[in-house]
Design goal:
The chain has 1 helix and 19 strands. Strands 9, 11, 12, 14, 15 and 17 form a 6-stranded antiparallel β-sheet that branches. A 5-stranded antiparallel β-sheet has the order 10-7-19-13-16, with no helix packed on it. Strands 2-4-5-6 form a 4-stranded mixed β-sheet, with no helix packed on it. β5 and β6 form a beta hairpin. It is elongated, with a radius of gyration of 27 Å.
């Protein structure tokens, strides 16, 4: 087998030597690529995963059988001609390869119209799962009026409430809840303030869930006019 020679050729080496070393290193790459590594059986020659995260594989859809690779392993699908990544889908309790061009990060927008909020009581805002105009949910993570993270990462969360004019002289509140407990909240008073917003970047792990709540101190129940929540996984 040809051996890879690092840090060669040096800048002082003549061109003929440079060309020769390029050829030698290329031969070394070809020798490595032709080896059938242990741990995976495959009819396709090349470099194959041995069950470790991040190892390059060949032909994700049909050429590899045997032990499954770790989450994050890459593969070249020679049928489709694209790179794929092996990932666990906690929403559907399954694992497999997905094209790198597929949706991978959470992106949702949900909202609603009127909802009655009792006085002086933090109340969950029940943004509609499917009916809100302009809504989207890339990884199907919104259910039962909450967002449940499909994977670990940092998530940018914003929520907005439009209050009726009848509450202009009262305090109003909005909050982000994580796993049933308040995480970030805001209260504000002002006769000209009818829209209230809250935002945060939150670290979540798989199956952590996010909801948002509304509050006011009017003497009677108040119906908010509209509400939206947006969540994007940023890393």
């Amino acid at each position: 087998m040809t051996v890879w020679v690092p840090n060669y050729p040096l800048s002082s080496t003549i061109m003929s030597s440079s060309t020769e070393q390029i050829r030698i290193n290329w031969d070394a790459i070809e020798d490595w690529w032709s080896v059938e590594h242990g741990g995976i059986a495959s009819a396709t020659s090349g470099a194959h995963a041995i069950g470790r995260t991040g190892i390059l594989q060949v032909d994700a859809t049909s050429g590899i059988t045997g032990t499954e690779p770790g989450t994050g392993a890459l593969a070249l699908d020679t049928t489709l001609g694209e790179m794929q990544i092996y990932r666990w889908d906690s929403t559907n309790s399954s694992a497999g390869y997905e094209g790198l061009t597929d949706q991978k990060f959470s992106r949702i927008r949900k909202g609603m119209g009127a909802q009655v909020i009792p006085a002086s009581t933090w109340t969950k805002v029940v943004c509609a799962s499917t009916t809100f105009s302009g809504s989207y949910d890339g990884l199907s993570e919104w259910s039962a009026y909450r967002f449940t993270a499909d994977g670990p990462g940092y998530y940018f969360i914003t929520a907005h409430i439009l209050w009726p004019a009848t509450i202009s002289e009262y305090n109003k509140g909005i909050a982000i809840y994580k796993n049933g407990a308040v995480l970030t909240r805001k209260k504000q008073y002002g006769s000209s303030i009818l829209t209230l917003s809250v935002a945060d970047i939150v670290s979540l792990v798989t199956n952590d869930y996010i909801e948002f709540y509304a509050w006011h101190n009017h003497t009677a129940s108040v119906s908010i006019e509209a509400a939206t929540i947006q969540i994007t996984r940023v890393s």
